[in-house]
Write the structure tokens for this entry.
Amino acid sequence: MRILAALLIAAAVPASASEPWPQDDPNTRLQPAFAGQTRAPAALSGVAPVVETFAEGLENPWGIAALPDGGYLVTERPGRLRVVSASGEVGPPVAGVPQVLAERQGGLLDVALDRDFGANRVVYLSYAKPLPGGLSATAVARGVLSADGTALTDVQDIFEQTPPSPTPMHYGSRIVLAPDGTLFVTLGERSSNRERVLAQDNRTTYGKVVRIGTDGSIPADNPLAGGAGNPAIWSFGHRNPQGAALDGQGTLWAVEHGPRGGDELNRVEPGRNYGWPVITYGINYGGTSVGDGIAVQDGMEQPVYYWDPVIAPGGMLFYDGAMFPEWRGDALIASLNPGGLVRLAMDGNRVTGEERFLEFQDRIRDVEQAPDGSLLLLVDAPSGVILRLSR
């Protein structure tokens, strides 16, 4: 592994811990709904991680999952799945991966291992599935990884977003295994003005988090099971949630992209409406208001935290390792813009501080905790690498 830098923290730090992290002016004049909902005080942990290149030769890596032998499965958005060894050697493409639509934001996206992977070798993949007529949908497939890691067999789709879309954008696609053995899957609202309103339409799975069985079945205790709407839906009113993780209590959290401003951290609860595109702390890319330009409405959930300007969040986790004990229980979030790794200091369901690492340096798509507590960061670039952050 090649050491890149030995005391890389950030491009700028606040003058004092009582000030928020340095950032540009917000895009809107909307006021937070409660104290600490945005621009929390800087949480200076005093940690200065060593940054190394762990693996090279990847093309737009998107998702990573740790294998029991110390290696990793890594997806590349053009449609390849690779095994990366514990020493950082990148293997050849795994055979048997589903065909993907590798256009704009589409491609092979997340990867997750079954809870019984050691016994059954089952792997889950989310991807942009090409469909007739130039359409596509976020899909989740399961397959069995061969003992030598060279091929997937018995591959079958267990979920497909409906309806299919002509817009190769906002696929969402993070997969999280719930404590009860079910799967959470985050789904974007496909971006266009015509489609994004469907985040509020529970007959579709646009802008939703869904919960399914590992075979694609619908859990009987889903909030819409047996009623109106798609029974797979767990929550709705999301824009493009590309990061999700369980906290130490097994509760699901997600981060999602806003437009210009309004990236959100949400505690995702069953049957709740998270507001998009009716309420948001952002504006359209052209500078106009989204809808009525409001951020609060009865019956719609407020984000636990939001960013304006954005961090463009990728994957996330709640840290519980030994290498950085100062960070235990905190949320670590990949940032695509301005780039780097964002740490949120947490006190229960409240954000108490923010700290950023490697800011303005790389587009970080996902973050994974290694067995020794170090962190692996996927750099989303045509010549992509995996960085390792250690003590």
